[in-house]
Amino acid sequence: MPSGDYKVVINHEEQYSIWALDRPTPAGWRDEGFSGDRNSCLAHIDTVWTDMRPRSLREAMQESERA
Amino acid sequence: MTAPELEDAYPLTALQSGMLFHSAYQEDSATYHDVFTLILRGPYQSDTFRAALREVMARHAVLRTSFDLTGFDEPIQLVWQDVEPPVQELDLSGFEHPGQRLSIWREQEKHRPFDWEAPPLFRAVIHHLDTDEFALTLSFHHAILDGWSVATMVTELLDRYAAGLQGVPQAPAVPPPSTFRDFVAREKEAVASPQTEQFWRDALADAPVTALPRLPGYRTGDAEDTVSHAVPLDDQLVQGLERAARQARVPLRTVLLAGHLRVLALLTGDSDVVTGIVTHGRPEHEAAEQVLGLFLNSVPVRVRTDVPSWEELIKRVFAAEVAFLPHRLYPLFEMQRLSQRSPLIDVLFDYRDFHVYQDLGPGGVIQVVESEFFEQTNLPLSANFTWSPQAGGLELKLKYDITQFSADQVVRAGEHYRRVFAKIAEDPAADPRESEELLAADVASVEGWNATGAAREFVALPDVVARRVAASPDAPAVWDGSWLTYAEFGARVRGLAAVLREQGVRLGDVVGVCLPRGADLIVAVHAVMAAGGAYLPLEPDYPDERLSFMVSDAGARVVITGEPGRFPGSVVVAPSESADGPVLGLEIPPSAPAYLIYTSGSTGRPKGVLVSHAAIANRLVWMGEAFPLGAGDRVVQKTPFTFDVSVWELFWPLMEGAGLVVAPPGVHLDAAALVELMRAHSVSMAHFVPSMLDAVMEVPDLDVPSLRRVVCSGEALPASLVARVHSAWPGVEVHNLYGPTEAAVDVTWHACQVGEERTPIGAPIRATRIEILDADLRRVPVGTAGELCIGGVQVAQGYAARPGLTAERFVPDPYGGPGARLYRTGDLARWLPDGEVDYLGRIDDQVKVRGMRVELGEVEAVLAQAPGVQAAAVRPVGGVLAAYVVGTAEPEELAGFLRQRLPDHMVPSSFTELDRLPVTANGKLDRKALPDPAPVARAPYEAPRDELEETLAGIWAEILGVERPGIRDDFFDLGGHSLLALRLALRMRQALGREIPVATVLAAPTIAQLTEALADEGDNPVSRGRVVPLRTAGNRPPLFLIHALGGQVFRYRPLAQHLGDDQPVYAIPAHGLTEGDAVQTTIDEMAETYAGYIRELFPDGPYFVGGFCIGGNIALEVARRLRKDGHDVPYVFLAWSSAQEPVVGSTLEDDTALMVHALAGGATSLDPRELSLMEPAERLLAIVNAATKEGQLRTESTDLDQIQRYVEVFRANAHAVGRYKHDTFDGPAILLIPEEDNAPPDEDYGWRAFVPNLETGLIPGARFSALYNPYVTRTANAWRRWMDRGLEHRARH
């Protein structure tokens, strides 16, 4: 993996990942706001991504519990 | 004519020596033999032409030069005073297609060697084509002339000739003031310059070796057979490039070089690239332009191409060019020595802006109609840019070796050049790193291969199984000692699911399952899913500590187990707590997790992979479509459920209504018990990890009549193992699947075919995409290695409770739908041109040795083939490779074995013997657990024991610069490399007065071994010249090719070169070709003698024998004798051989026809009646003259005595075989029919009457043309497949 800076990105399922800072963010992803070197991006994700269930599952589970 | 007198003598340049070494190494190849042909319109006058050439020769020393490689301390060139112009004239004007004749002649000319000691080292050949048209060919060894010089020479020669024709007086033949001798001196200075040496040392220190990817079946190494592919560059494009050059204030060449480097970065998947660049060392003044000679050098240029704009790349390239300019005379060979790397470059960039014969404008006496330049270098691929005066524009020709690259691959590379240049011309400010547009054609292919369709409509697994239970309640479902019916199974699942719900299990909860393999386990995993949970397999054999780590890491509150005491903090449920229960009717959404499987993590902490229902449902539905199962099918469940391969065994058969046979615990490790279980239960489908399959193949009784399908995954599947399975279980399908746990078991599929040489992992399955990406996650071209990444519905949700790690491995998919993720596998793979994926190993296992990328797996695979080696592992230690071997082989022998098969840098420096290789818990090689390598032993000094060893030690000392080489010291450990090995072979040849192939030095790298090897050569059919070894390396059964009419065997050489590095090939020429050797006159006599030679060389079979034309007839009789003695001959190859009429009848009846046939291949312009009236000697001469004149002479020699002998052998062969009637031959034989014969499908040339087991196959071309370009590669591939098939049949019987 080349060095260089990354940004934290997030998709519609509220799943997190990282992407090269100088490249356009792929469709369906938005910048979360954090950027830095690779390790600090991953460390940041470790602290903010607390519920790893995809959003659709979270909603389905809430639905199912209500039922 | 008197003998010419010596005028001058001086050493060779490094490039000249290098070329001569290469020519010596590949004696019959066309390497460095250049053939330049001009088609000219105008009158031809012999005397005038000779006079013009004589003047040109008088001016230029190189045209009067010869080489003496052995007579002096170093190789030198000798310039002679008066050398006769080497003009030959051939008349083709009587032929219907003189152009065709000319190209056949050119083809042969490429292989007509020069005698280096006989000046001049060029030939000028005139072919008369038409009344007013002739061809001038200059055929020369590249060591005397470079391209510029050829252009100069032609211009000067034609100027003088045209002037001569018109009677215009010409300037006297005064030599140009600058000479080639000066250049030789300047090169020597460069070599001696410490600044220049330092420059190259620094430049090469950590440079990568940019090698273009080879597809499976293609080799690496020196070029053997080059052709060129023209890439059209239209005027507008060239203008755009010129504009970019002007803007950047650099020459056009720099812009082209920048584009070339970008293409290399694309093709290698690495932005740091090195190319060779052709430079010339002519002094920079006008007079120097006129000198003829070889002023070239190739130097490596390294550029990092990852810059944000083309402009910047161009500037960077220009800076690199400017930097090396003062050091460009330093020879490449010396650089290879400095850097200990050979080859240093794989690809060459050559830009030529010649002043070619522009003076001969239209309207002159002589006009150039067209020109053709054949020049074979030893580089595998070169990009040649030429300003072509005929085309009036810039031409790009990609010259490539057909044994290393496929035409299709080069055409695609040409497309990359075109797109890169278009991009530069269009917008020099654009970002060159974006590869999408540059790879448009590759992208279209990849997207086509990835168009695998959408997932089928989602139905959750428990619902699918419940439907089966309802549909066929009485069918057998699960066996573990006795059968559970579907109804019974369904009831138990419902019962346990209800208990789980009562214990609070809800959608998405993880539930542990800790049970031994058996029906309870099957029920448990189904019940967890039915209750809406995701199961977590907990292997009862694991230590408590690991189990409790997994339970807590995964957050599993409930565990199903029979050992409640092991899970103190959990809610524990017994597997048989309830026999039945209600239908829950739970709706499970596609994104709900189905299972959580732990895999080992690189940091030592296991990581749990969470896989959704949608993912696994897709995988299982695909399987049902790919491998339809019926109620009668039995599938064995034997994979431990902690490995994700077990998932399909546990669920899929029950989704399809088939029966699941559960192997008792432990049986999955016992091959014999497994086979017994499969037989007892009529199992029709089973999965094996390849290493287990390998063990199964060792089981003596493999009879499982019910077996229809074997599925492999988990490790690389060797083609040899597939072949064993195909022969042990004929008719059983073998499928190779690939996938990581992180993408729901498998994502690619390859259905193995019988006889395949390599087993790819296949194409993506439904709703799945494969991307091969570089380190920046950009696509790489088809054929280029990169990281295998997986997109689509099967991508897992991530690693439980590991957000950072999940974010690192599951990344945005720039090529998928919005918001989609790609899983980066860490596996190295490439697309094959047919849309399948080829697995190359783990990226972590890819190491660099002396700048060259090495796949450890590749070295291991070759090492494992060495005699005495059972298993092998390789790892890098301190910049070199260390090998570990289980078995009984000597390190020296292993190194020798590898050196014949792998490039130098891939040969490990040490070999450590181990009792067994360390493996991980999953049974895979654990490289990290390999011990420190055994120290590289420099053998204690042992003095030479006799005169021969004394001589050898002297040569070693001289070549290696080592003071006192011991007889056990390894040539390569003392700093030797392949080029020095060439030098060693030449010096030994000179000192010992006998031929010593370089291969001998490679295989026997100590003085003691060399002495032995030389002694071994003693008395055998090879040393007696009765058998010609065409390729000696390899462990496969040898192929013996018998001569055709005339007894010569040269024509088999190209075939032998293409049959594969591991295939030994020998040719048997007829008796009688050398002076004093008696001809053999009957086929029985020949067959008896030849069979004797074969057995003398290889006492035991199997052997392949075959031949073209009557070679096939003789081979059949040879095979008859070998078989009679109990040896195996898997195939006799009858190539274009006839049992009906082995030799054309007219040849036997009419000796004139025979001679014409023998000498000119059947046709001359002579009148046969006139010929038949001549005396035999006169007739021979007439035919030889006519055939020579027409360029059709079929013998290798122009010596009349030898021609006479050849005709005698031809006549003896023809009469021996001509009317021979074979007896019945009951062995296997294959008749190869040339395609252009257009034979009906049942054609057998009369063989079937004698050979009941005859098979037939097609070879390309007509008559013998299958043995030559462009057909020989195809012929060899087919031939190799037939040999494989022969071996396979043999294994089966």
UniProtKB/TrEMBL annotation, chain B:
Presence of the UniProt keyword Phosphoprotein in the record: yes
UniProt cofactor(s): pantetheine 4'-phosphate
Domain Carrier as annotated: residue spans: 943-1018
Protein keywords: Phosphopantetheine, Phosphoprotein
GO process terms (BP): amino acid activation for nonribosomal peptide biosynthetic process; enterobactin biosynthetic process; lipid biosynthetic process; monocarboxylic acid biosynthetic process
CC terms in the record's Gene Ontology section: cytosol; enterobactin synthetase complex
Signal sequence coordinates: none
GO MF annotation, one: phosphopantetheine binding
The keyword Phosphoprotein appears for this protein: yes
Protein name from the UniProt record: Amino acid adenylation domain-containing protein
